Amino acid sequence: AGLSADAISYVETHGTGTPLGDPIEITGLCKAFGDIKQRCPIGSVKSNIGHCEAAAGIAAVTKVLLQLQHGQIAPSLHAQALNPHIDFAATPFVVNQTLCDWQTRIINGKPEPKSAGISSFGAGGSNAHIIIQEWLAVTPQTTNHPALIVLSAKDEAHLQILALNLVNHIAQQQHELALVDLAYTLQVGRVAMAQRLGFMADSIEQVVSVLQAWLDGKANKCRVNRIDPMP
Question: How far is it, in rounded angstroms, from Cα 60 to Cα 12?
Fold first, then answer.
């Protein structure tokens, strides 16, 4: 993943609470993390909801995503008495037992995005470990160049619904959308269907005004065509 161990600020362990399995897992994590400079909190969702068997991995992912969303680390329950076969003081890890804020790591004087490792081990021997990192809003690209806005649907009725949904989506955004990003997603990230609408826009505000005018039945710069599939 291209991250140093110091950048990982939480590990969601497989953590079944077994006398033998947990020490083996912690030993493996210690080898992977090495001599990191900051203690790393760990936990296991199994202490909260039990072992979900085949769904244990997605349960762990869900927990980490919720923690990232709220910026907090949930406690592992029933963990006051730690496994006597694990000397946690000699490891870089600490079992998180109270609800606490997820602290941002500072590395070389710069704040790092919150990153978590997640381990999930299958009964058949398939072991997985993934890293999830928080998304940080970036400053939208600014450009003075117009962009091509395209929408397509199966028919005009659905094209109108799509246009209205886009207008509402833009209105609900809490951060500024970049015109070039919107245009790219509509051109590359959508399936091209028969009924198509297209126009050039200089700004997000113009995208909204042009679409709203078309929805209101007013003549504007939109071009609407139908391209039937080849026989």
Answer: 7
CA torsion 59→64→70→72, rounded to 10°? 120
Give the integer Cα–Cα distance in Å for 32 and 34: 6
Query: Rounded to an integer, what distance in angstroms lies between the CA atom of residue 159 and that of residue 149?
Result: 13
Quick: pLDDT tens for 129-172: 999 999 887 665 666 689 999 999 999 999 999 999 999 999 98
Nearest to 119 by CA among 68, 38, 34, 43: 43
147-226: CATH class: alpha beta
List 109's β-bridge partners, or say none.
Answer: none
CATH 3.40.50.300 fits 5-133, yes or no: no
Query: What is the spatial distance between Cα 138 and Cα 175, in angstroms, rounded to a whole number?
Result: 10
CB 159, CB 226: distance < 8 Å:
no
pTM over 0.70: no
Domain boundaries, the chain: 5-133, 147-226
Integer angstrom CA distances of residue 193 from 51, 142, 147, 174, 222: 45, 30, 20, 30, 17
